[in-house]
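Course assignment 3, question 2. Fill in each field.
Student: A.L.
Task: Predict the tertiary structure for the chain below.
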Amino acid sequence: MVPEDPSLRRRVLLAIALVVILPFVFIYTFVGVTNRMFIPLLESQGYGPYHGRVYVEPWLAVMVVGGGLAVQAWKGPSVVLASIGARRVTPEEHPDLHARITRLSRLAAVEPPEVAVTTNAAPNAMALRGPGGPTVVVTTGLLETLEGDELDAVLAHEIAHIANRDATVMTVAWLLPTITYYIAIAAAYLIYGMVRGLGMGSSGSRRGGDGAARAVIVLIAVSIVTLAIAAMFWAASTLVHRILSRYREYAADRGAAAITGDPASLASALTTLDERMPKTPDHDLRRLDGGAEALYVVPLEGRAFTDAELVSTDVFPETHPPTHERVERLRDLTATFERDAGDTGLSNTPDRSMGDAPAEEGRR
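Answer field:
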């Protein structure tokens, strides 16, 4: 069974609070800016006067935010599965994988999740939780790279995420970064288009030129402020997402060690995956990218395959702790397990008699 982690629970609750509060702050920041900047700007350019002010009823804000979070929790996992080309598989298709996950789930005292596989050379795995229940996703690269106790250790890590109930929070927490990102992109394109239009209009007819120029200036000003606000909230929500992601990996490592009784196997598996990831073809890394990086057992290698690094690690923390730190903690756990076993004269290795896995599928 996965031990309770009060520190993780506190962090999850704090993250949930921020995930709920930040969208309200985002909405009412726009309301305030509209009333204090946008409307006065329009009036100064000869539009209006506007006697009323923009106001969003609290109940409407609750409906919008609550609806958005509910849709993200409901559809988010399916979107992630579709984006990486994962397909749910039956026990007949992958008997060894299903048997391992079923056995480890029983040891963790959780219901066995659904199993999905994506054809990808990157050795990785993730856990998702949707309305229909949790799903553990593995790549064919993982099945080809790991076997035996190392494969069990990585699967136990993902089951620990399910037991810790942090998979849903990570999925829902990505709502505001996604929305603010697309708002910022739209604002940037509008600024670009307006600036180009203003330049092209300077050589054309002057009829109505002053009015058009004023309208363009207003649109550019509004777009710049919108871009700044969206970027600010994108940065804040992304920071929350990444900080939670880092801690939950430590918690899942401890959970996997408790499930298997074998921290050394997870340490060995993480080292192997960390060494293998840089050798993964770029096109496979691109298929796994798209905002879901924080959900994987190991991070996608350095984001080196993107055209530009959007999230600089000089400003934002990595989604995962350094592998060498995770390995060092697991080694400390190994020493603790061995000491406790020596003191009691008992083995920490869990009973594998419950649903032993059949002969391995082997390296593909």
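Instructor remarks: Residues 15 and 240 are 7 Å apart (CA to CA). The chain has one domain: 6-344.
Grade: pending
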